[in-house]
Amino acid sequence: MHLTFSHKTHETSNIYTYxxxxxxxxxxxxxxxIEMTLDYPDPDERGTKRWFxxxxxxxxxMVSITTRWFGDKASTFKQTLDSLTKNQGLEVVDPDxxxxxxxxxxxxxxxxxxxIGITPYHSIVKYxxxxxxxxxxxxxYAAKSKDDLVFLDLFKKYGCKVTTVVDETLTGAKILEFxxxxxxxxxxxxxxxxxxxxxxxxxxxxxPKDQLxxxxxxxxxxx
Length: 223
Ligand SMILES: Cc1cc2nc3c(=O)[nH]c(=O)nc-3n(C[C@H](O)[C@H](O)[C@H](O)COP(=O)(O)OP(=O)(O)OC[C@H]3O[C@@H](n4cnc5c(N)ncnc54)[C@H](O)[C@@H]3O)c2cc1C
Fold this sequence. Notes:
Helix content is 21%, strand content 33%. It is an alpha/beta fold and 223 residues long. The chain folds into two domains: 2-96, Elongation Factor Tu (Ef-tu), domain 3 (Beta Barrel); 109-217, 3-Layer(aba) Sandwich (Rossmann fold). It has a six-stranded antiparallel beta sheet with strand order 4-3-6-1-2-5, covered by helices on one side. A five-stranded parallel beta sheet has the order 9-8-7-10-11, sandwiched between helices. The model has no long low-confidence stretch (mean pLDDT 95).
């Protein structure tokens, strides 16, 4: 997929959304990710390639990614991303992944997000909202601080039940307590790899494996 950079929006002082115009509008399913390679001299040891969930909805004209900006600690990749100029072109691998909605529209959904792991849920809920499709969703959103919670307006406007967890560790037990009667619900978990692995391990003995869906973001150690 060929993209040209359009503009950047600030979700918070350190969480940015980068918007790109696709040459041909890609067919993607809300919740999928792309692989992006940037071309620049002297990359650091983490290299020139990253994966990003599309935070935009398939109903949007442009596509977006949303990421955390670590200022002077940012990788050379993120520094290059942040210095893209308007209309600068880049190639990305087409969207892929199955962290997407189930076909069964009546299935109740629990979306667990750690930090920037909120991105696939933004894409999904924006899509449902634009399409006027109603699903029962409970968002359980853990972040380092209140200031790091993004996109809450969309989730609340859509009618999601929203539980935020700030300044404390989200555990499997808390998820089950928040989700109440979870026996029939599909639980999605998205966020930093160590957090998702740990929550999956805590939940797998209580929830059937086919009711748990995970999306790992390597590169972040914590929310
Ligand atoms: C399927 C998938 C979807 C993803 N979706 C998203 C998404 O929507 N948004 C998103 O932001 N990320 C997403 N990621 C993760 C993304 O690909 C990057 O790994 C992540 O954003 C970190 O980027 P970065 O490595 O450029 O580091 P930075 O973001 O620049 O820094 C990340 C952290 O690493 C620390 N750090 C700095 N140098 C080093 C070093 N040498 N070694 C180790 N740590 C260091 C920094 O201090 C900071 O804490 C996704 C990954 C996958 C696999």
